[in-house]
Amino acid sequence: MLTSKYAFEFIIFLQLLFVSVILAGGRELMKVGMASIDITPKESIMLVGYAARTEPSSGVVHPIYARAIAFEDQTGQRNVLITADLVGFSRNLSDEISLQVEKEFNIPRACLIFSASHTHTAPLLNCLKLQMYVLTGTQQKTIDEYTQFLKESLLQVIRLAINDLAPANLTFGSGQAEIGINRRAFTSRGVIIGINPDGPVDTQVPVLAISDTNQQLSGVLFGFACHGTTLGGSDYYQVCGDYMGFAREYLELSQKNIVTFFTPGCSADINPYPRGTLHLARLHGLRLAGAVASVLRPEMLTVDGPIRCLLKTVELPFSKIPSTSEFKERLKDENLHVQRHARYFLDLLEKEKAIPKTYSYPIQVWQFGRDLTMVVLGGEVVVDYALRLKRELKNHHVWMIANANDDCGYIGSARTLYEGGYEADNSTIYYFLPSRWDFQVEEIIISTVKEMVASVDSL
């Protein structure tokens, strides 16, 4: 049973959610289309998110979804934001779907965002983190079949959203939620994953409301910066959207004719607090839904077109690449994952004779008129990037989206790389990166984002 505090929050957000968003008159509206497809696996499947898991899933808490919002601005340009209850989108997957969408609808790659909620209770795909697991033939077959089903579902949900395009009004606002806590705890053994109440967090909850021409709320896109790790790894084997999925569920239960969408922020070093049970996942979802509902008021900022889009890849340098002898020495490590990582790069060296010294990293910017700027980064990005960009782009309403387009590992800031810890060092083993990032990566990413924003500002 919910405590009286959270029951009160629930009643408040139910009341606020029914507030209609007032349409602006005397202007041509953008068009918006929305669609949702259930992507819940129909059979037991390995879950991704924790290397400690050794068995396939044992059930489903609630359905998981792939969803899409299609935008058509006043110039006729179309953009599509795809969200899904996945731990991430691999570069191969997002590029494969993009090629098909461009072929069918003439929508360029820069006009597509693939955003994974980053729930750690999602199905394992054959294009994502597969090296982490030892699989049986049957498990591999299930993963292959599910991945193909997912690809077909992603294409279908995009088609449905485009076919649903109709005049709509967009409004923006932001709230606050205190669900996450910085997990980089400083100990005599160095930085570990724990609890750091003094560490940085991003509490902003950006909200984009979509209203139809009858002034009724029809869709809500919202974001938040906190890992989808309320539920454990070695002790939890059920498919679930975590607190983000529950937040969407609560919002939709309160008004059945709306569709909700979630994008994660820069939350690589932020965990839900407290965590560890399904009850807590529901509770965090309720609090996030309440934060979203509190924003849905008539005085929200009107968002208009045109939509300007840029997508750029930059080369992020790795730090010192280990030598062949160093990789061979790691084959003796007690940690099986360290052994697999070493074997992977020894095989690569034998085949390619060299290990790449940089990684081609995707950065994307969407700007809605002069009203809202979405900055989209690949991988698991630490909170420092969001806090810095919101500060340095203070004349913009900045919406940070991470875990998008490419699942390329943890993206540490200069601070976290200096301090060390899982996000800076150990995570490279599980993402099969040759080494930690060089200290330059923060300045490369920040300066590129600012240049891209300046470019769209000038259009």
What key phrases describe this protein's structure?
11 helices, 2 domains, single chain, 22 strands, 28% strand, 4-stranded mixed β-sheet, alpha+beta, 459 residues, 9-stranded mixed β-sheet
Instruction: Provide mean pLDDT, rounded.
Output: 93
Shape call: globular
Number of domains: 2
Sheet-strand content, in percent, reads: 25-35%
Specify Rg, calculated over alpha carbons: 21 Å
| Classification by helices and strands | alpha+beta
What is the total tally of β strands?
22
Q: Assembly type of the shown chains?
A: single chain
Number of helices: 11
Distance between the termini: 53 Å
Main sheet overview:
9 strands, mixed
Which regions are unreliable across 5 or more consecutive residues at pLDDT < 50?
18-24
State the share of residues found in helices, binned by percent: 25-40%
What would you say this structure looks like, in words?
Strand 9 and strand 10 (190-196) form a beta hairpin. With 459 residues, the protein is of the alpha+beta class. The protein folds into two domains: 4-304, no CATH class; 322-356, no CATH class. Strands 1, 4, 5, 6, 8, 11, 12, 14 and 16 form a nine-stranded mixed β-sheet that branches. The protein has a four-stranded mixed β-sheet with strand order 17-18-19-21, covered by helices on one side. A three-stranded antiparallel β-sheet has the order 10-9-15, with no helix packed on it. It has eleven helices and 22 strands. Helix content is 33%, strand content 28%.
